[in-house]
Design goal:
The chain is built from two helices and seven strands. It has one domain: Alpha-D-Glucose-1,6-Bisphosphate, Chain A, domain 4, CATH 3.30.530. It starts with a strand and ends in an 18-residue tail after the last strand. A hairpin with a 2-residue loop joins strand 6 and strand 7.
Length: 122
């Protein structure tokens, strides 16, 4: 299996601000997919739409200010069953986001363009 891994340092945003950007519809709409809806509660499904397509992520776990874990439950076939994990820590003036998208069965073209666009606009 292969994984997408990114480490992103976010300056001028607390761990809580970054966490809020990952756990609220307004937060997610503000930096990722403007067409975002659904439930951000554990067990809920968040629907992300990009132009003609999109995907749905079920919220598996949240640890306030520290971690968010989703599983892809609908979207492109190669995405379904993969997990998206956000680990959040504070390091001086930076909030560090360790992003991983895991469980891919094989490398796909998307992996070559996956950029750490993370919640740096918090």
């Amino acid at each position: 299996m292969v994984d997408i891994l990114h480490r992103v340092g976010v300056q001028h945003s607390s761990a809580q601000m970054v966490y809020d950007a990952l756990t609220t519809i307004d937060g997610l709409s503000g930096w990722w997919a403007t067409d975002t809806s659904g439930s951000v509660e554990v067990g809920g499904v968040i629907e992300f739409r990009f132009g003609p397509g999109g995907f749905d992520m079920q919220v598996l776990e949240v640890e306030p200010g520290e971690r968010v874990l989703w599983q892809v439950v609908d979207g492109p076939a190669e995405w379904i069953g993969t997990t998206v994990n956000w680990q959040i820590t504070q390091d001086g003036d930076y909030t560090i986001v360790m992003f991983s998208h895991q469980g891919w069965k094989e490398p796909v073209e998307f992996m070559h363009i996956a950029a750490p666009s993370g919640p740096s606009s918090c």
